[in-house]
Amino acid sequence: MRPAADPPARPIPTGRRAGARASTNLAVWAAGWATLVCGGAMVLSGLVGLADLGPAAALAGLGLGCAAAGRLGVRRARLPAHPPPMAIFAAACGAWLMMIVTSTAAYLLTGATGSLGIAAFESVAGFCTTNLSGLTGIQSLPAAVLFWRALTQWLGGFAALALLAAALPLHVPALVLPGDSAGVPDRASAPPFKTQLRRMAVVYGTLGGLCAASYGLADMGALDAFSYAFTTVSTGGFGNYPGGLGHFDSTAVESVATVFMALAGVSATTLWWAVRGRWGVLWHSFELRAYLLLLAVGTGALTALTWSDGGAHALRRAGVAVAAASSSTGFEPARWSGWPWGAQALALALIATGGMAGTAGGGFQMRRAIAAARYAYRELVTEIHPHTVHVVKIGRRSVAERPLALLNGYQILFAAAVLAGVFGLSLAGMDLWGGASASISALATMGPAPGADLGALGGGERSVLAVLMLLGRLSFFPLVVVAGAAATGARRLLDTERHDAGRRS
């Protein structure tokens, strides 16, 4: 009897093949643009730091090479007309990966550090707009490196806004919950991607220019004014000196930083309405009113908790701390590790909450926090009065059940990431309170954490914090979806090899 013939291999569905091709093309296009922009920024940094010819030449040469490679990748990629969500998430991860790789090469070539791990960690922190640094002797670094270091946070902040503009048409409710018209628009009212990106660029650039000019008026030098403006508006927090803003010991500098950190925590769409002069629309934004109330109440509470420690200076210090924590800008408030436990807990709660949705900052964000609180209240009311119909609202608009379900998933991911971070940092030798504080701060892209000494990090601690920063910067879903797709692809490939091996045997 002749053995039965093997069944023919099942062809890959056309839709799956087309989706994979779209993901690849969009990822190559995004990575090409990221490399091109980083190359141009490196050339600019080299021109700024021409006084130190060696590092400036290395940075400019690397920038020209990156710009040429990025241009080639952009020209060769074919953009899909309607990319699927997986393609957009893959493009976001590819762009961040290329930015981190190019920045790591820049730190190594300029001699800022000779350690690959520290260079990679500095790049992750820069593009994730988190003030966690592995470099030592920052004040002695060449001007080209300092300017590039600030530009990484500037570019990372704008990349976060670009991801928001790209993901909004998908109507990913866990990324953007529908709310009032002064916040982030929903799918029905969302303008095209290019229009949104242009508006965000106008707001982002205008805010950065005003911040740099204000720092200049506060007697900062040109390099410091632009560097600190980049890291303030992007909610990054990198500084050119140890101690952040405390190095200047200037009320004027701290006042400028407080104002622009608070503005950086406001939605880019809300700021666009302000540029257009639509002040009435702003007043009807429930999320904006909640954010301003949080700033005011937080400042008052922190002033009261630290009054005995600083006296009349407590109000100024509390204003800086609350603006930095609420917007997740990583300028560390002076001496906050010596604050009372209540003040440290309040600062950590503000860091975890973050600013409004649609900003370059991180954290849970006000819109999600409001929706989560309203959802919890509804569940309590339903438990007491089972026949009551209670709708969750943000302002005057209701939130559908699907966004609330995804919001619960986001909360679970957020809590699971914090717990995993605490476990990993505890294994690396950090105490429990310091590990919890550092995990929340890294996940919220803040950086400094009350009660945690992050001045000298080991390799294990850097690895844990780098993963948390990436998860917080990409809002979990792009990184989780791409990692899941990669794992699924690897499993299918392994199953195919096993099947082929079984047939051959």
Description:
The chain is mostly helical and 505 residues long. Residues 3-14 and 171-188 have low confidence and may be disordered. It has helices spanning 14-48, 53-76, 85-109, 116-127, 143-167, 193-217, 222-233, 251-264, 268-275, 279-283, 286-310, 314-327, 341-353, 366-384, 401-427, 432-443, 459-473, 477-504, and strands at 393-394, 397-398. The protein starts with 13 loop residues before the first helix and ends with a helix. It has a two-stranded antiparallel sheet with strand order 1-2.
Record the SSE blueprint.
Layout: H1 14-48, H2 53-76, H3 85-109, H4 116-127, H5 143-167, H6 193-217, H7 222-233, H8 251-264, H9 268-275, H10 279-283, H11 286-310, H12 314-327, H13 341-353, H14 366-384, E1 393-394, E2 397-398, H15 401-427, H16 432-443, H17 459-473, H18 477-504
Antiparallel strand pairs: 1-2
Content of β-strand: under 5%
Q: Poorly predicted ranges (pLDDT <50, ≥5 residues)?
A: 3-14, 171-188
- What is the average per-residue confidence, as pLDDT, rounded to a whole number? 82
The major β-sheet equals:
2 strands, antiparallel
Shape estimate: globular
What distinguishing features does this structure have?
505 residues, mainly alpha, two-stranded antiparallel ribbon
Summary of the model, kept short:
This protein has about 500 residues and is an all-alpha fold.
